[in-house]
């Protein structure tokens, strides 16, 4: 795990995505392979290292892929499964290293969507029953749900809105504007995820970015950098720590993209993203 130590020589936070695909304890309470991998990671963390952990899709996805089909998920928003099979073992393994939980909601097609009010009701029920924690963040991958009823529930429970630069979502600045330029997380942390160029599917972004050793000409969308900078500066103004997660698929090489954002932040003030600027 020398790569873990090397990573934290340059960055203060790491997002672990592989937990998205499996719980940490199985139905019998036995550790899964994912538990063992996370345990190994934890042994290489220094006191000041922090991670963001993806919550398994089995807890937050309404449908799951099974072969070539998507089927209904019986564990969707199951509070007992979340607490027993993920939250408690994650807390035990990572302790103070754990900076946040990311609940990623899958993209929903038009014929699968309920109203924002229905989603807000479901989220309110879920976050009312799980342990109170100021490290929860929700990533909504369907533009339809970037709406006031959902934002009100996130605000009530102190759950952050993940601002995601992703295939089928509007620009980051637009997502932030719809939320009233508010950071909902009660722990004063926010998460920005730079995943893929807008309008580009995962497979196409992967193929174009591979082997992830350089910035790909024309792949980075300038507005992604502009918006990330503006949101980070607004975080400073609102005394909120903005955690920026960068994927290679956003432009070819994540460390070089992060360097470009850092240079922008160190280079002078950007446009104020709030109304009236």
The parts where pLDDT drops under 50 for at least 5 residues are: 272-277
Q: Radius of gyration in whole Å, from Cα? A: 18 Å
Instruction: Provide the succession of SSEs.
Output: HEHEHEEHEHEHEEHEHHEH
Taken from the alpha-carbon principal axes, the silhouette is globular
Mean pLDDT: 94
Helix content: 25-40%
Based on helices, strands and strand pairing, what is the structural class?
A: alpha/beta
Side-by-side strand order of the widest sheet: 1-2-5-6-7
| Strand content range | 15-25%
Number of helices: 10
The count of β-strands is 10
Major pleated sheet? 5 strands, parallel
How would you name the oligomeric state of the polypeptide chains in this document?
single chain
Distance N to C terminus: 46 Å
Notes on the structure:
This protein has 277 residues and is α/β, with parallel strands linked by helices. Helix content is 38%, strand content 17%. The chain has a domain of 120 residues. The chain has 10 helices and 10 strands. It has a 5-stranded parallel sheet, with helices on one face. Strands 8-9-10 form a 3-stranded parallel sheet. The termini are far apart. The C terminus is likely disordered.
State the gist of this model.
With 277 residues, this protein is α/β, with parallel strands linked by helices. It has ten helices and ten strands.
Compile the SSE list and pairings.
Blueprint: H1 2-8, E1 13-16, H2 33-42, E2 50-54, H3 57-60, E3 63-66, E4 69-72, H4 79-94, E5 98-105, H5 116-129, E6 136-140, H6 148-157, E7 160-161, E8 163-165, H7 172-178, E9 189-194, H8 202-209, H9 222-237, E10 241-246, H10 254-266
Parallel strand pairs: 1-2, 2-5, 5-6, 6-7, 8-9, 9-10
Antiparallel strand pairs: 3-4
Helix pairs in contact: 2-4, 5-6, 9-10
């Amino acid at each position: 795990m020398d790569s873990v130590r090397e990573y934290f020589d340059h960055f203060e936070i790491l997002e672990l995505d592989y937990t998205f695909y499996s719980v940490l304890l199985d139905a019998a309470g036995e550790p899964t392979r994912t538990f063992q991998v996370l345990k190994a990671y934890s042994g290489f963390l220094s006191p000041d290292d922090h991670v963001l952990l993806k919550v398994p899709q089995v807890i937050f996805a309404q449908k799951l892929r099974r072969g070539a089909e998507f089927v209904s998920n019986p564990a969707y928003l199951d509070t007992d499964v979340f607490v027993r099979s993920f939250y408690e073992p994650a807390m035990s393994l990572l302790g103070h290293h754990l900076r946040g939980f990311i609940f990623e909601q899958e993209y929903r097609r038009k014929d699968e969507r309920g109203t924002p009010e229905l989603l807000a009701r479901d989220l309110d029920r879920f976050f009312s029953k799980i342990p109170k924690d100021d490290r929860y963040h929700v990533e909504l991958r369907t533009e339809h749900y970037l709406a006031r009823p959902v934002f009100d529930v996130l605000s009530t429970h102190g759950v952050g809105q993940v601002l995601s630069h992703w295939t089928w979502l509007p620009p980051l600045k637009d997502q932030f504007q719809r939320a009233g330029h508010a950071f909902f997380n009660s722990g004063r942390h926010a998460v920005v995820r730079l995943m893929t160029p807008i309008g580009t599917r995962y497979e196409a972004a992967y193929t174009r970015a591979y082997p992830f050793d350089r910035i790909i000409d024309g792949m980075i969308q300038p507005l992604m950098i502009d918006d990330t900078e503006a949101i980070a500066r607004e975080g400073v103004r609102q005394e909120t720590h903005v955690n920026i997660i960068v994927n290679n698929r956003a432009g070819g090489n994540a460390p070089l993209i992060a360097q470009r954002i850092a240079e922008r932040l160190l280079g002078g003030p950007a446009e104020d993203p709030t109304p009236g600027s």
